[in-house]
């Protein structure tokens, strides 16, 4: 039989004495030491006493508390824990709300938000081009879909019509979609594998040969490897000018310009001679370690750190790093307007192929290009770091040699 009444509860509240007053069948009215009032259902499950909060008073009335306690007793009669059952139901409801919210956010919105979040340091031309490609090729097919609604079938609709005729553009669009969907997953808006992933997924549906041909068609104006030592002399003569140091680091490591611009001190272990780039800084979204030759370590040890900035090459803009065109402008000032920043990677690759005996896979991995197919990758998961270190040491030795000393043949020992 119930013991509490509405007036009785009101009297307990006015009295304000901490404690628990029972209503019967496990239901209690509680006044805490701080004066808070609430309802508690006390029960035993598997021999252990448990306390289940039913809500605060007066939001939960006596009648409602009795109803909630009755529901809990029904669950207990089924030999289930009322508290765990309620928590599971709440989790399911929360997940359902999240899923509903995720379905309301379209890929087009996600792409725009991604551009706003990551494009601050991009040039206006690059920002417009990035969005324009999605507007032309992706949004018509998946723009109105949610992140969770995009699977392999939808990706193929985006890519198949342009893969043969515009392979390079198609692959760029694929990479953009992969980035947006990765960001959506991080926000809990989708789960599972990324349907835009190339290796081990879309490469099973689309021609690899077309992609290789497209890569070969992408030419960047590059300096002849024979001319690099002379350029390095010019750069060294500029002293500790950060743009010049950034250019030297880019040339010596074979890194992409954006990798150098956003390089932070936390990524470098100068004692070990390693530059560790996290996955989100890499084009293929896989973490990558770059071996640093002694010349690179010496270069960075001489570079002063700027208080308040985590970057090697801080700047005044929104990005906090040197301008996107800083290296290009420096090269133009040195009367090298005919070459591009990215072209130095080709320069390095030409030198490695023509003047060394290092295996092709070592030379490609030095540029973070892993051209081993899926079967090879399954048996060889090594990033060939030690062999890449020997190659990069040889490259650094060559580029920092006197300009006349340009034809030394670098041998590679297969025992290395």
Would you mind describing this structure in some detail?
- The chain is an alpha+beta fold and 416 residues long.
- The protein has three domains: 6-98, Double Stranded RNA Binding Domain; 107-217, DNA polymerase, domain 1; 225-399, Orthogonal Bundle (hpI Integrase, Chain A), CATH 1.10.443.
- Helix content is 49%, strand content 9%.
- The protein contains 18 helices and seven strands.
- It has helices at residues 6-15, 62-77, 82-104, 107-118, 124-137, 139-142, 152-163, 167-186, 208-217, 228-237, 242-253, 257-261, 294-301, 326-333, 343-355, 360-366, 374-379, 385-399, and strands spanning 19-24, 27-31, 37-45, 48-56, 268-269, 274-277, 288-291.
- The strands form two sheets. The chain has a four-stranded antiparallel β-sheet, with helices on one face. The chain has a three-stranded antiparallel β-sheet with strand order 5-6-7.
- Strand 1 and strand 2 form a beta hairpin.
- Helix 4 (107-118) packs across helix 8 (167-186), helix 7 packs antiparallel against helix 8 (167-186) and helix 11 (242-253) packs antiparallel against helix 13 (294-301).
- The longest helix has 23 residues, at 82-104.
List keywords for this structure.
single chain, 416 residues, alpha+beta, Double Stranded RNA Binding Domain, DNA polymerase, domain 1, hpI Integrase, Chain A, 3 domains, elongated, disordered C terminus
């Amino acid at each position: 039989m119930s013991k509490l009444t509405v007036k009785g509860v009101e009297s307990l509240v006015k009295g304000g004495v901490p404690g628990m007053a029972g209503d019967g069948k496990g239901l209690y009215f509680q006044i805490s030491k701080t004066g808070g009032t609430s309802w508690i259902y006390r029960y035993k499950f598997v021999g252990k006493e448990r306390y289940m909060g039913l809500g605060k008073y007066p939001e939960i009335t006596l009648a409602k508390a009795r109803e909630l306690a009755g529901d809990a007793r029904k669950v207990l009669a089924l030999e289930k824990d009322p508290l765990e059952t309620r928590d599971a139901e709440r989790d399911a409801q929360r997940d359902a709300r999240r899923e509903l919210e995720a379905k309301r956010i379209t890929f087009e919105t996600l792409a725009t938000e991604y551009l706003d979040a990551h494009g601050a340091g991009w040039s206006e031309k690059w920002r417009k081009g990035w969005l324009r490609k999605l507007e032309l090729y992706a949004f018509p097919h998946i723009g109105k879909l949610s992140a969770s609604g995009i699977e392999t079938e939808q990706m193929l609709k985006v890519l198949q019509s342009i893969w043969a005729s515009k392979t390079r553009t198609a692959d760029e669009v694929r990479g953009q979609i992969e980035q947006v969907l990765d960001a959506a997953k991080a926000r809990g808006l989708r789960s599972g594998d990324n349907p835009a992933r190339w290796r081990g997924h879309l490469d099973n549906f689309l021609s690899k040969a077309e992609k290789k041909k497209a890569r070969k068609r992408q030419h960047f104006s590059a300096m002849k490897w024979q001319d690099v030592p002379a350029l390095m002399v010019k750069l060294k003569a500029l002293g500790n000018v950060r743009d010049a140091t950034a250019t030297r680091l880019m040339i010596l490591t074979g890194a992409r310009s954006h990798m150098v611009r956003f390089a932070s001190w936390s990524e470098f272990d100068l004692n070990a001679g390693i530059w560790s780039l996290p996955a989100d800084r890499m084009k293929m979204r896989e973490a990558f370690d770059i071996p640093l030759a002694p010349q690179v370590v010496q270069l960075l040890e001489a570079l002063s750190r700027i208080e308040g900035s985590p970057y090697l090459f801080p700047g005044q803009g929104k990005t906090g790093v040197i301008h996107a065109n800083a290296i290009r402008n420096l090269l133009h000032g040195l009367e090298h307007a005919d070459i591009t920043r990215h072209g130095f990677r080709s320069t390095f690759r030409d030198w490695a192929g023509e003047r060394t005996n290092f295996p092709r896979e070592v030379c490609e991995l030095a540029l973070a290009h892993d051209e081993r197919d899926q079967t090879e990758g399954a048996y060889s998961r090594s990033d060939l770091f030690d062999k890449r270190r020997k190659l990069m040491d040889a490259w650094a030795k060559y580029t920092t040699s006197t300009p006349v000393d340009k034809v030394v043949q670098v041998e590679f020992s297969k025992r290395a």
